[in-house]
Design goal:
The complex is a heterodimer of chains A (432) and B (160). Chain A has 432 residues and is an alpha/beta fold. Chain A has 3 domains: 238 residues, NADH-ubiquinone oxidoreductase 51kDa subunit (Rossmann fold), CATH 3.40.50; 84 residues, Ubiquitin-like (UB roll); 92 residues, NADH-ubiquinone oxidoreductase 51kDa subunit, iron-sulphur binding domain (de novo design (two linked rop proteins)), CATH 1.20.1440. Chain A is built from 18 helices and 8 strands. In chain A, β5 and β6 form a beta hairpin. Chain B folds into 2 domains: 72 residues, Arc Repressor Mutant, subunit A (Orthogonal Bundle), CATH 1.10.10; 75 residues, Glutaredoxin, CATH 3.40.30.10. The longest helix of chain B is centred in the N-terminal third of the chain and has 12 residues. In chain B, strands 2-1-3-4 form a 4-stranded mixed sheet, covered by helices on one side. Chain B is of the alpha+beta class. In chain B, α7 runs parallel beside α8. The chains are: A alpha/beta (432), B alpha+beta (160). The interface between A and B is large, with 57 and 40 residues.
Protein backbone atom coordinates (compact mmCIF):
# COMPACT_ATOMS: atom_id res chain seq x y z
CA UNK A 1 0.00 0.00 0.00
CA UNK A 2 2.84 2.35 0.80
CA UNK A 3 4.15 1.93 -2.72
CA UNK A 4 0.88 2.90 -4.35
CA UNK A 5 0.56 5.79 -1.95
CA UNK A 6 3.98 7.07 -2.95
CA UNK A 7 3.29 6.64 -6.62
CA UNK A 8 1.21 9.78 -6.80
CA UNK A 9 2.34 11.39 -3.57
CA UNK A 10 2.98 14.66 -5.37
CA UNK A 11 -0.66 14.93 -6.44
CA UNK A 12 -2.73 13.53 -3.58
CA UNK A 13 -6.05 15.07 -4.67
CA UNK A 14 -6.08 13.56 -8.15
CA UNK A 15 -4.22 10.31 -7.49
CA UNK A 16 -7.28 8.32 -8.60
CA UNK A 17 -8.08 10.59 -11.52
CA UNK A 18 -6.38 9.98 -14.85
CA UNK A 19 -7.62 10.95 -18.31
CA UNK A 20 -10.51 8.67 -19.15
CA UNK A 21 -10.76 7.11 -15.68
CA UNK A 22 -14.29 6.64 -14.42
CA UNK A 23 -15.54 7.13 -10.88
CA UNK A 24 -13.27 5.61 -8.21
CA UNK A 25 -15.34 3.19 -6.12
CA UNK A 26 -14.61 2.29 -2.51
CA UNK A 27 -12.27 -0.55 -3.46
CA UNK A 28 -10.18 1.65 -5.77
CA UNK A 29 -10.14 4.41 -3.21
CA UNK A 30 -8.93 2.10 -0.44
CA UNK A 31 -6.29 0.54 -2.70
CA UNK A 32 -4.54 3.93 -2.98
CA UNK A 33 -4.59 4.63 0.75
CA UNK A 34 -8.18 5.80 1.09
CA UNK A 35 -9.71 5.79 4.60
CA UNK A 36 -6.25 5.25 6.14
CA UNK A 37 -6.66 8.51 8.05
CA UNK A 38 -10.03 7.37 9.43
CA UNK A 39 -8.77 3.93 10.49
CA UNK A 40 -5.50 5.16 11.98
CA UNK A 41 -6.54 8.42 13.63
CA UNK A 42 -10.27 8.75 14.36
CA UNK A 43 -10.66 7.85 18.04
CA UNK A 44 -6.95 6.97 18.26
CA UNK A 45 -5.21 10.34 18.02
CA UNK A 46 -6.33 13.27 20.17
CA UNK A 47 -8.41 15.73 18.12
CA UNK A 48 -6.38 18.60 19.57
CA UNK A 49 -3.17 17.04 18.25
CA UNK A 50 -4.69 16.65 14.78
CA UNK A 51 -5.85 20.28 14.87
CA UNK A 52 -2.25 21.23 15.58
CA UNK A 53 -1.14 19.20 12.53
CA UNK A 54 -3.66 21.05 10.33
CA UNK A 55 -2.46 24.39 11.73
CA UNK A 56 1.20 23.44 11.21
CA UNK A 57 0.48 22.29 7.65
CA UNK A 58 -0.27 25.84 6.54
CA UNK A 59 -3.42 24.75 4.67
CA UNK A 60 -5.43 27.75 3.50
CA UNK A 61 -9.07 27.67 2.32
CA UNK A 62 -9.34 26.68 -1.33
CA UNK A 63 -12.75 28.29 -1.90
CA UNK A 64 -11.24 31.67 -2.69
CA UNK A 65 -10.55 33.61 0.48
CA UNK A 66 -7.47 31.62 1.50
CA UNK A 67 -8.13 31.85 5.23
CA UNK A 68 -5.93 29.46 7.27
CA UNK A 69 -8.08 26.37 7.83
CA UNK A 70 -6.61 25.36 11.19
CA UNK A 71 -7.13 28.86 12.56
CA UNK A 72 -10.74 28.89 11.33
CA UNK A 73 -11.34 25.60 13.14
CA UNK A 74 -9.65 26.81 16.32
CA UNK A 75 -12.47 29.35 16.81
CA UNK A 76 -15.00 26.56 17.38
CA UNK A 77 -15.66 26.49 21.13
CA UNK A 78 -14.48 23.31 22.84
CA UNK A 79 -17.57 23.11 25.00
CA UNK A 80 -20.80 24.25 23.39
CA UNK A 81 -23.34 22.53 25.65
CA UNK A 82 -25.91 20.00 24.46
CA UNK A 83 -26.89 19.98 20.80
CA UNK A 84 -25.38 19.36 17.39
CA UNK A 85 -22.15 20.73 15.98
CA UNK A 86 -22.03 20.93 12.21
CA UNK A 87 -19.52 20.52 9.43
CA UNK A 88 -20.63 21.70 5.98
CA UNK A 89 -18.88 21.13 2.67
CA UNK A 90 -19.38 24.05 0.34
CA UNK A 91 -19.88 22.20 -2.95
CA UNK A 92 -21.84 25.07 -4.46
CA UNK A 93 -19.22 25.60 -7.14
CA UNK A 94 -20.61 28.55 -9.08
CA UNK A 95 -17.80 31.06 -9.39
CA UNK A 96 -17.71 31.82 -13.12
CA UNK A 97 -14.63 30.13 -14.53
CA UNK A 98 -14.29 27.59 -11.69
CA UNK A 99 -14.52 23.90 -12.54
CA UNK A 100 -12.31 22.12 -10.02
CA UNK A 101 -14.55 20.71 -7.27
CA UNK A 102 -16.75 18.99 -9.84
CA UNK A 103 -13.71 16.98 -10.94
CA UNK A 104 -13.12 15.51 -7.47
CA UNK A 105 -16.77 14.90 -6.64
CA UNK A 106 -17.56 13.13 -9.91
CA UNK A 107 -14.37 11.08 -10.16
CA UNK A 108 -13.24 10.44 -6.57
CA UNK A 109 -16.22 11.17 -4.29
CA UNK A 110 -14.89 9.13 -1.34
CA UNK A 111 -12.11 11.63 -0.97
CA UNK A 112 -14.60 14.31 0.15
CA UNK A 113 -16.39 11.83 2.41
CA UNK A 114 -13.15 10.79 4.12
CA UNK A 115 -11.98 14.40 4.42
CA UNK A 116 -15.25 15.30 6.11
CA UNK A 117 -15.12 12.39 8.56
CA UNK A 118 -11.61 13.30 9.71
CA UNK A 119 -12.43 17.03 9.82
CA UNK A 120 -15.61 16.35 11.81
CA UNK A 121 -13.61 14.32 14.30
CA UNK A 122 -11.13 17.17 14.76
CA UNK A 123 -13.82 19.83 15.40
CA UNK A 124 -16.09 17.30 17.15
CA UNK A 125 -19.02 17.74 14.75
CA UNK A 126 -21.68 15.04 14.78
CA UNK A 127 -23.68 16.06 11.69
CA UNK A 128 -22.41 17.01 8.25
CA UNK A 129 -23.99 18.35 5.08
CA UNK A 130 -22.61 18.50 1.58
CA UNK A 131 -24.24 21.59 0.08
CA UNK A 132 -24.10 20.93 -3.65
CA UNK A 133 -25.46 23.06 -6.49
CA UNK A 134 -28.59 21.79 -8.20
CA UNK A 135 -27.04 21.43 -11.66
CA UNK A 136 -24.41 18.90 -10.43
CA UNK A 137 -26.74 15.89 -10.78
CA UNK A 138 -23.94 13.43 -11.47
CA UNK A 139 -21.72 14.61 -8.61
CA UNK A 140 -24.65 14.54 -6.15
CA UNK A 141 -25.51 10.96 -7.12
CA UNK A 142 -21.90 9.80 -6.83
CA UNK A 143 -21.61 11.41 -3.41
CA UNK A 144 -24.82 9.69 -2.28
CA UNK A 145 -23.44 6.37 -3.53
CA UNK A 146 -20.12 6.98 -1.77
CA UNK A 147 -21.89 7.84 1.50
CA UNK A 148 -23.89 4.59 1.27
CA UNK A 149 -20.72 2.58 0.60
CA UNK A 150 -18.89 4.26 3.49
CA UNK A 151 -21.82 3.64 5.83
CA UNK A 152 -21.95 -0.04 4.88
CA UNK A 153 -18.25 -0.37 5.67
CA UNK A 154 -18.59 1.36 9.04
CA UNK A 155 -16.71 4.53 8.11
CA UNK A 156 -19.80 6.67 8.68
CA UNK A 157 -22.62 6.57 11.22
CA UNK A 158 -22.58 5.55 14.86
CA UNK A 159 -19.34 4.51 16.60
CA UNK A 160 -17.14 4.71 13.49
CA UNK A 161 -14.69 1.75 13.39
CA UNK A 162 -15.30 1.21 17.13
CA UNK A 163 -13.79 4.62 17.88
CA UNK A 164 -16.71 5.94 19.93
CA UNK A 165 -16.98 8.83 17.44
CA UNK A 166 -20.22 9.17 15.46
CA UNK A 167 -20.89 11.27 12.39
CA UNK A 168 -23.89 11.42 10.05
CA UNK A 169 -23.45 12.90 6.60
CA UNK A 170 -26.21 14.16 4.28
CA UNK A 171 -26.28 15.61 0.77
CA UNK A 172 -28.31 18.80 0.33
CA UNK A 173 -29.01 19.62 -3.30
CA UNK A 174 -29.45 23.35 -3.74
CA UNK A 175 -31.98 25.17 -5.91
CA UNK A 176 -29.69 27.73 -7.49
CA UNK A 177 -28.30 31.24 -6.86
CA UNK A 178 -24.60 32.08 -6.78
CA UNK A 179 -24.93 33.81 -3.41
CA UNK A 180 -25.40 30.38 -1.74
CA UNK A 181 -21.62 30.00 -1.98
CA UNK A 182 -21.20 32.75 0.63
CA UNK A 183 -20.94 30.82 3.87
CA UNK A 184 -23.63 32.58 5.90
CA UNK A 185 -26.00 32.64 2.90
CA UNK A 186 -25.30 28.93 2.53
CA UNK A 187 -26.22 28.40 6.17
CA UNK A 188 -29.51 30.28 5.72
CA UNK A 189 -30.24 28.19 2.64
CA UNK A 190 -29.52 24.96 4.54
CA UNK A 191 -32.03 26.14 7.13
CA UNK A 192 -34.59 26.31 4.32
CA UNK A 193 -34.58 30.09 4.02
CA UNK A 194 -33.75 32.66 1.35
CA UNK A 195 -29.98 32.72 0.88
CA UNK A 196 -29.34 36.18 2.28
CA UNK A 197 -25.92 36.57 3.92
CA UNK A 198 -25.89 37.25 7.65
CA UNK A 199 -24.14 40.11 9.38
CA UNK A 200 -21.06 38.97 11.30
CA UNK A 201 -20.46 38.61 14.24
CA UNK A 202 -21.57 36.16 15.46
CA UNK A 203 -19.34 34.00 13.29
CA UNK A 204 -20.58 30.57 12.20
CA UNK A 205 -17.92 28.82 14.30
CA UNK A 206 -19.84 30.03 17.37
CA UNK A 207 -23.38 30.42 16.06
CA UNK A 208 -23.97 29.01 12.60
CA UNK A 209 -26.43 26.45 11.32
CA UNK A 210 -29.52 26.44 13.58
CA UNK A 211 -27.55 28.64 15.98
CA UNK A 212 -24.98 25.93 16.62
CA UNK A 213 -21.20 25.84 16.10
CA UNK A 214 -20.61 25.32 12.38
CA UNK A 215 -17.63 25.06 10.08
CA UNK A 216 -18.10 25.61 6.35
CA UNK A 217 -15.19 24.62 4.11
CA UNK A 218 -14.69 24.29 0.37
CA UNK A 219 -14.56 20.79 -1.15
CA UNK A 220 -10.87 21.00 -2.13
CA UNK A 221 -9.95 22.22 1.36
CA UNK A 222 -11.69 19.28 3.04
CA UNK A 223 -10.17 16.78 0.62
CA UNK A 224 -6.69 17.88 1.72
CA UNK A 225 -7.37 17.06 5.38
CA UNK A 226 -7.16 13.27 5.26
CA UNK A 227 -3.82 13.49 3.39
CA UNK A 228 -2.41 15.99 5.88
CA UNK A 229 -3.48 13.85 8.83
CA UNK A 230 -2.13 10.66 7.25
CA UNK A 231 1.22 12.05 6.10
CA UNK A 232 1.92 15.00 8.35
CA UNK A 233 2.40 18.76 8.17
CA UNK A 234 6.00 18.59 6.91
CA UNK A 235 5.02 16.46 3.91
CA UNK A 236 2.27 18.95 3.02
CA UNK A 237 4.53 21.97 3.45
CA UNK A 238 7.13 20.39 1.19
CA UNK A 239 4.62 20.05 -1.67
CA UNK A 240 4.47 23.82 -2.20
CA UNK A 241 7.10 25.62 -4.25
CA UNK A 242 6.78 29.02 -2.57
CA UNK A 243 5.29 30.39 0.61
CA UNK A 244 2.05 28.41 0.51
CA UNK A 245 1.79 24.71 1.25
CA UNK A 246 0.31 21.77 -0.61
CA UNK A 247 -0.93 21.37 -4.13
CA UNK A 248 -3.64 23.34 -5.92
CA UNK A 249 -6.19 22.45 -8.54
CA UNK A 250 -5.44 25.11 -11.16
CA UNK A 251 -7.58 25.64 -14.23
CA UNK A 252 -7.50 27.64 -17.43
CA UNK A 253 -10.41 28.50 -19.71
CA UNK A 254 -10.60 30.75 -22.75
CA UNK A 255 -8.82 30.71 -26.12
CA UNK A 256 -5.90 28.48 -25.18
CA UNK A 257 -4.82 25.28 -26.90
CA UNK A 258 -5.55 22.93 -24.04
CA UNK A 259 -8.06 24.32 -21.56
CA UNK A 260 -8.31 22.15 -18.44
CA UNK A 261 -7.75 21.60 -14.74
CA UNK A 262 -4.54 20.20 -13.22
CA UNK A 263 -3.27 19.47 -9.74
CA UNK A 264 0.12 21.19 -9.48
CA UNK A 265 2.40 22.28 -6.66
CA UNK A 266 1.13 25.41 -4.94
CA UNK A 267 3.24 28.29 -6.20
CA UNK A 268 3.58 27.08 -9.79
CA UNK A 269 4.07 30.18 -11.97
CA UNK A 270 1.21 31.55 -14.01
CA UNK A 271 3.42 31.22 -17.09
CA UNK A 272 3.91 27.49 -16.53
CA UNK A 273 0.20 26.93 -15.99
CA UNK A 274 -0.72 28.94 -19.07
CA UNK A 275 2.04 27.96 -21.47
CA UNK A 276 2.94 24.40 -20.46
CA UNK A 277 -0.28 22.91 -19.10
CA UNK A 278 -2.82 24.95 -21.06
CA UNK A 279 -0.61 24.82 -24.14
CA UNK A 280 -0.41 28.57 -24.68
CA UNK A 281 -2.71 30.82 -26.70
CA UNK A 282 -4.45 29.45 -29.77
CA UNK A 283 -2.98 30.40 -33.09
CA UNK A 284 -4.13 33.84 -34.15
CA UNK A 285 -4.80 34.99 -30.60
CA UNK A 286 -2.57 36.67 -28.06
CA UNK A 287 -2.97 37.28 -24.36
CA UNK A 288 -4.56 40.61 -23.39
CA UNK A 289 -5.23 39.88 -19.73
CA UNK A 290 -6.70 37.32 -17.37
CA UNK A 291 -8.76 36.89 -14.25
CA UNK A 292 -6.50 34.68 -12.08
CA UNK A 293 -9.11 33.00 -9.90
CA UNK A 294 -12.66 33.42 -11.15
CA UNK A 295 -15.01 36.29 -11.99
CA UNK A 296 -14.56 38.10 -8.69
CA UNK A 297 -10.80 38.60 -8.95
CA UNK A 298 -8.90 41.57 -10.40
CA UNK A 299 -7.54 41.42 -13.93
CA UNK A 300 -3.84 40.79 -14.29
CA UNK A 301 -1.82 41.18 -17.50
CA UNK A 302 1.29 39.89 -19.26
CA UNK A 303 3.73 41.51 -16.84
CA UNK A 304 2.38 39.21 -14.12
CA UNK A 305 3.01 35.92 -15.91
CA UNK A 306 6.11 35.04 -13.94
CA UNK A 307 4.38 35.38 -10.58
CA UNK A 308 3.82 32.26 -8.52
CA UNK A 309 0.16 31.32 -8.17
CA UNK A 310 -0.15 31.52 -4.40
CA UNK A 311 -2.27 33.67 -2.10
CA UNK A 312 0.09 36.41 -0.92
CA UNK A 313 2.01 36.78 -4.18
CA UNK A 314 -1.15 37.33 -6.23
CA UNK A 315 -2.53 39.64 -3.53
CA UNK A 316 0.66 41.72 -3.68
CA UNK A 317 0.09 42.14 -7.43
CA UNK A 318 -3.33 43.65 -6.66
CA UNK A 319 -5.55 40.65 -7.31
CA UNK A 320 -6.54 37.43 -5.57
CA UNK A 321 -5.77 33.81 -6.34
CA UNK A 322 -9.44 33.07 -5.64
CA UNK A 323 -10.35 29.59 -6.84
CA UNK A 324 -7.11 29.28 -8.86
CA UNK A 325 -9.06 28.86 -12.09
CA UNK A 326 -7.97 31.48 -14.64
CA UNK A 327 -10.13 33.01 -17.34
CA UNK A 328 -8.16 34.27 -20.34
CA UNK A 329 -9.03 37.47 -22.19
CA UNK A 330 -7.58 37.33 -25.69
CA UNK A 331 -6.77 40.25 -27.99
CA UNK A 332 -9.81 39.65 -30.24
CA UNK A 333 -12.29 39.82 -27.36
CA UNK A 334 -13.57 43.18 -26.12
CA UNK A 335 -12.67 43.89 -22.50
CA UNK A 336 -15.63 46.26 -22.15
CA UNK A 337 -17.94 43.53 -23.44
CA UNK A 338 -16.38 41.08 -21.00
CA UNK A 339 -17.04 43.49 -18.14
CA UNK A 340 -20.65 43.92 -19.31
CA UNK A 341 -21.01 40.15 -19.05
CA UNK A 342 -19.38 40.04 -15.60
CA UNK A 343 -21.36 42.92 -14.09
CA UNK A 344 -24.67 41.65 -15.47
CA UNK A 345 -23.90 38.39 -13.71
CA UNK A 346 -23.07 40.09 -10.40
CA UNK A 347 -26.14 42.35 -10.62
CA UNK A 348 -28.41 39.38 -11.30
CA UNK A 349 -26.95 37.29 -8.50
CA UNK A 350 -27.10 39.97 -5.80
CA UNK A 351 -29.44 38.79 -3.05
CA UNK A 352 -30.77 42.35 -2.91
CA UNK A 353 -30.36 42.96 0.80
CA UNK A 354 -27.70 45.71 0.83
CA UNK A 355 -28.31 48.91 -1.12
CA UNK A 356 -24.85 49.40 -2.68
CA UNK A 357 -25.01 45.91 -4.18
CA UNK A 358 -28.70 45.87 -5.19
CA UNK A 359 -28.75 49.38 -6.69
CA UNK A 360 -25.11 49.94 -7.54
CA UNK A 361 -24.38 46.87 -9.62
CA UNK A 362 -27.24 47.37 -12.14
CA UNK A 363 -26.13 51.03 -12.45
CA UNK A 364 -22.55 49.96 -13.16
CA UNK A 365 -23.80 47.44 -15.70
CA UNK A 366 -25.89 50.11 -17.42
CA UNK A 367 -22.92 52.47 -17.71
CA UNK A 368 -20.82 49.68 -19.21
CA UNK A 369 -23.52 48.77 -21.73
CA UNK A 370 -23.69 52.42 -22.82
CA UNK A 371 -19.95 52.51 -23.41
CA UNK A 372 -19.96 49.15 -25.21
CA UNK A 373 -22.78 50.34 -27.47
CA UNK A 374 -21.00 53.58 -28.29
CA UNK A 375 -23.18 55.81 -26.13
CA UNK A 376 -20.64 56.39 -23.35
CA UNK A 377 -19.24 59.71 -22.15
CA UNK A 378 -15.68 60.34 -20.94
CA UNK A 379 -16.97 61.21 -17.46
CA UNK A 380 -18.47 57.70 -17.24
CA UNK A 381 -14.98 56.34 -16.65
CA UNK A 382 -14.59 58.46 -13.52
CA UNK A 383 -18.13 57.64 -12.49
CA UNK A 384 -17.40 53.91 -12.76
CA UNK A 385 -14.26 54.32 -10.67
CA UNK A 386 -16.16 56.35 -8.07
CA UNK A 387 -19.00 53.80 -7.96
CA UNK A 388 -16.40 51.09 -7.63
CA UNK A 389 -14.93 52.71 -4.54
CA UNK A 390 -18.36 53.07 -2.97
CA UNK A 391 -19.80 49.67 -3.87
CA UNK A 392 -16.57 47.78 -3.35
CA UNK A 393 -15.62 49.15 0.06
CA UNK A 394 -15.45 46.39 2.65
CA UNK A 395 -18.02 47.17 5.35
CA UNK A 396 -20.58 48.87 3.11
CA UNK A 397 -22.25 45.49 2.57
CA UNK A 398 -22.83 42.35 4.66
CA UNK A 399 -20.84 40.07 2.41
CA UNK A 400 -18.11 40.09 -0.22
CA UNK A 401 -20.42 39.86 -3.26
CA UNK A 402 -20.27 43.57 -4.14
CA UNK A 403 -16.54 43.97 -3.39
CA UNK A 404 -15.95 40.89 -5.55
CA UNK A 405 -18.00 42.40 -8.37
CA UNK A 406 -15.86 45.54 -8.30
CA UNK A 407 -12.50 43.73 -8.50
CA UNK A 408 -12.62 43.02 -12.26
CA UNK A 409 -14.19 46.45 -12.87
CA UNK A 410 -11.56 48.70 -11.29
CA UNK A 411 -8.69 46.57 -12.55
CA UNK A 412 -10.27 46.48 -16.01
CA UNK A 413 -10.57 50.28 -16.00
CA UNK A 414 -6.89 50.45 -15.08
CA UNK A 415 -5.42 47.97 -17.56
CA UNK A 416 -7.81 48.52 -20.48
CA UNK A 417 -8.35 52.27 -20.16
CA UNK A 418 -7.37 52.83 -23.80
CA UNK A 419 -10.15 50.46 -24.89
CA UNK A 420 -12.71 52.43 -22.89
CA UNK A 421 -11.53 55.70 -24.42
CA UNK A 422 -11.60 54.23 -27.93
CA UNK A 423 -15.20 53.04 -27.46
CA UNK A 424 -16.25 56.50 -26.32
CA UNK A 425 -14.33 58.42 -29.00
CA UNK A 426 -15.41 56.16 -31.86
CA UNK A 427 -18.95 55.87 -30.57
CA UNK A 428 -18.80 52.14 -31.26
CA UNK A 429 -17.11 48.96 -30.12
CA UNK A 430 -13.81 48.64 -32.02
CA UNK A 431 -13.91 44.86 -31.67
CA UNK A 432 -17.04 44.45 -33.79
CA UNK B 1 -60.40 25.77 8.12
CA UNK B 2 -59.36 22.20 8.80
CA UNK B 3 -61.36 20.99 5.79
CA UNK B 4 -59.48 23.45 3.64
CA UNK B 5 -56.20 22.27 5.10
CA UNK B 6 -57.04 18.61 4.48
CA UNK B 7 -57.94 19.38 0.88
CA UNK B 8 -54.62 21.13 0.47
CA UNK B 9 -52.62 18.25 1.87
CA UNK B 10 -54.47 15.79 -0.34
CA UNK B 11 -52.81 17.51 -3.31
CA UNK B 12 -49.53 15.83 -2.43
CA UNK B 13 -49.00 12.15 -3.21
CA UNK B 14 -48.02 9.65 -0.53
CA UNK B 15 -44.63 9.28 -2.21
CA UNK B 16 -44.04 13.03 -2.14
CA UNK B 17 -45.03 13.27 1.51
CA UNK B 18 -42.81 10.33 2.39
CA UNK B 19 -39.79 11.84 0.63
CA UNK B 20 -40.36 15.21 2.32
CA UNK B 21 -40.78 13.57 5.74
CA UNK B 22 -37.44 11.80 5.22
CA UNK B 23 -35.72 15.16 4.69
CA UNK B 24 -37.49 16.57 7.76
CA UNK B 25 -36.25 13.60 9.81
CA UNK B 26 -32.66 14.87 9.88
CA UNK B 27 -33.52 18.55 10.39
CA UNK B 28 -34.48 20.27 13.65
CA UNK B 29 -37.58 22.04 12.28
CA UNK B 30 -40.12 20.99 9.67
CA UNK B 31 -39.80 24.28 7.80
CA UNK B 32 -36.06 23.69 7.38
CA UNK B 33 -36.93 21.21 4.64
CA UNK B 34 -38.59 23.94 2.54
CA UNK B 35 -36.17 23.82 -0.37
CA UNK B 36 -35.90 20.03 -0.35
CA UNK B 37 -39.70 19.80 -0.34
CA UNK B 38 -40.09 22.20 -3.26
CA UNK B 39 -37.52 20.22 -5.23
CA UNK B 40 -39.11 16.86 -4.45
CA UNK B 41 -42.52 18.00 -5.64
CA UNK B 42 -41.16 19.85 -8.67
CA UNK B 43 -39.28 16.70 -9.70
CA UNK B 44 -42.68 14.99 -10.07
CA UNK B 45 -44.70 17.83 -11.53
CA UNK B 46 -42.25 20.02 -13.41
CA UNK B 47 -43.28 23.18 -11.57
CA UNK B 48 -44.91 24.46 -8.37
CA UNK B 49 -48.49 25.67 -8.82
CA UNK B 50 -50.27 27.87 -6.26
CA UNK B 51 -52.33 24.99 -4.78
CA UNK B 52 -49.21 22.79 -4.62
CA UNK B 53 -47.28 25.55 -2.91
CA UNK B 54 -50.07 25.89 -0.31
CA UNK B 55 -50.06 22.14 0.28
CA UNK B 56 -46.29 22.04 0.84
CA UNK B 57 -46.51 25.03 3.19
CA UNK B 58 -49.21 23.24 5.16
CA UNK B 59 -47.09 20.10 5.44
CA UNK B 60 -44.12 22.15 6.65
CA UNK B 61 -46.28 24.13 9.08
CA UNK B 62 -45.36 27.49 7.62
CA UNK B 63 -47.26 30.24 5.82
CA UNK B 64 -47.82 30.04 2.08
CA UNK B 65 -46.54 33.59 1.66
CA UNK B 66 -43.26 32.76 3.36
CA UNK B 67 -42.75 29.62 1.32
CA UNK B 68 -43.47 31.63 -1.83
CA UNK B 69 -40.77 34.10 -0.80
CA UNK B 70 -38.34 31.20 -0.65
CA UNK B 71 -39.58 29.53 -3.84
CA UNK B 72 -39.22 32.72 -5.89
CA UNK B 73 -35.72 33.43 -4.56
CA UNK B 74 -34.20 30.31 -6.11
CA UNK B 75 -33.83 30.18 -9.88
CA UNK B 76 -34.23 26.41 -10.11
CA UNK B 77 -37.69 26.47 -8.52
CA UNK B 78 -40.30 27.18 -11.18
CA UNK B 79 -43.52 28.95 -10.20
CA UNK B 80 -44.82 28.87 -13.76
CA UNK B 81 -45.29 25.87 -16.06
CA UNK B 82 -42.16 24.93 -17.97
CA UNK B 83 -41.55 22.71 -20.99
CA UNK B 84 -40.83 18.97 -20.81
CA UNK B 85 -37.16 19.85 -20.64
CA UNK B 86 -35.59 23.02 -19.27
CA UNK B 87 -32.53 24.24 -21.15
CA UNK B 88 -30.09 25.99 -18.82
CA UNK B 89 -27.73 27.96 -21.03
CA UNK B 90 -24.54 29.14 -19.36
CA UNK B 91 -24.21 32.90 -19.88
CA UNK B 92 -21.18 33.34 -17.60
CA UNK B 93 -17.85 34.73 -18.62
CA UNK B 94 -15.89 31.67 -19.80
CA UNK B 95 -18.69 30.66 -22.15
CA UNK B 96 -19.12 34.27 -23.28
CA UNK B 97 -15.43 34.51 -24.19
CA UNK B 98 -15.88 31.34 -26.28
CA UNK B 99 -18.79 32.90 -28.22
CA UNK B 100 -21.50 31.30 -26.11
CA UNK B 101 -23.82 34.19 -26.96
CA UNK B 102 -23.63 33.29 -30.66
CA UNK B 103 -24.53 29.68 -29.84
CA UNK B 104 -27.38 30.87 -27.64
CA UNK B 105 -28.66 33.09 -30.44
CA UNK B 106 -28.92 29.97 -32.60
CA UNK B 107 -30.79 28.13 -29.83
CA UNK B 108 -33.25 31.03 -29.53
CA UNK B 109 -33.64 31.19 -33.30
CA UNK B 110 -34.13 27.44 -33.66
CA UNK B 111 -36.70 27.25 -30.87
CA UNK B 112 -38.34 30.59 -31.64
CA UNK B 113 -38.15 31.73 -28.01
CA UNK B 114 -36.18 34.15 -25.85
CA UNK B 115 -34.85 33.52 -22.32
CA UNK B 116 -37.85 32.70 -20.12
CA UNK B 117 -39.89 31.39 -23.04
CA UNK B 118 -41.39 27.96 -23.66
CA UNK B 119 -41.77 26.50 -27.15
CA UNK B 120 -45.30 26.32 -28.54
CA UNK B 121 -45.17 22.51 -28.52
CA UNK B 122 -44.25 22.55 -24.82
CA UNK B 123 -41.00 20.67 -25.31
CA UNK B 124 -38.46 23.22 -24.13
CA UNK B 125 -38.10 26.18 -21.78
CA UNK B 126 -34.94 28.28 -22.17
CA UNK B 127 -33.28 29.92 -19.18
CA UNK B 128 -29.87 31.50 -18.54
CA UNK B 129 -27.78 29.94 -15.79
CA UNK B 130 -24.66 30.82 -13.84
CA UNK B 131 -21.43 29.06 -14.83
CA UNK B 132 -22.00 25.29 -15.10
CA UNK B 133 -18.46 24.46 -13.99
CA UNK B 134 -17.45 23.04 -17.36
CA UNK B 135 -15.35 25.98 -18.52
CA UNK B 136 -12.64 23.91 -20.22
CA UNK B 137 -15.38 22.74 -22.59
CA UNK B 138 -17.13 26.09 -23.08
CA UNK B 139 -19.71 26.92 -24.30
CA UNK B 140 -21.93 24.64 -22.23
CA UNK B 141 -25.63 24.11 -21.53
CA UNK B 142 -27.87 21.60 -19.83
CA UNK B 143 -30.88 20.04 -21.50
CA UNK B 144 -32.86 18.61 -18.62
CA UNK B 145 -30.30 16.75 -16.51
CA UNK B 146 -27.80 16.26 -19.32
CA UNK B 147 -24.77 18.45 -19.80
CA UNK B 148 -23.74 19.36 -23.35
CA UNK B 149 -20.51 21.16 -24.07
CA UNK B 150 -18.02 22.34 -26.72
CA UNK B 151 -21.14 23.76 -28.36
CA UNK B 152 -21.19 25.30 -31.81
CA UNK B 153 -24.14 26.95 -33.58
CA UNK B 154 -24.39 24.03 -36.02
CA UNK B 155 -24.00 21.51 -33.21
CA UNK B 156 -27.05 22.78 -31.34
CA UNK B 157 -29.12 22.37 -34.50
CA UNK B 158 -28.52 18.65 -34.19
CA UNK B 159 -29.14 18.53 -30.45
CA UNK B 160 -32.55 20.20 -30.53
Amino acid sequence: MTDTMNLNADRPLTRNITPGSGVADLETFESTGGYTAVRDHVGKTEAADLLQVVMDSGLRGRGGAGFPTGMKWSFVPKDSGPGHRYLVANADEMEPGAFKDRLIMERDPHQLVEGMIVSAYIINADVGYIFIRGEYYEAAQRLRDAIAEAKAKGYLGTNIQGSGFSFDLHVHVSAGRYICGEETALINSLEGKRATPRAKPPFPQVSGLFGRPTIVNNVETLCNISHIVARGADWFQALGLGKDAGTKLYGVSGRVNNPGCWELPMGTTIREILEVHAGGMREGYSLKGFLPGGASTDFLVEEHLDLQMEYDTIAAAGSRMGTGTMIILDDKTCPVGMLCNLELFFARESCGFCTPCREGLPWVHGLLVNIENGNGRMEDIDLLNRQGRFIGAIGNTHCAHAPGAIEPLTSGLKYFREDFIEHIEKGACPYH
Amino acid sequence: MSDVADTQLALLTDEEVEAIEYEISHLPMRRSAAIDALKIVQEQRGWISDPTLAAIARLLEMSTAELDGIATFYNLIFRQPVGDKVILFCDSVSCWVMDGDKVCARVKDKLGIEYGGTTADGRYTLLPVTCLGDCDHAPAMMIGKELHHDLTPDGVDELL
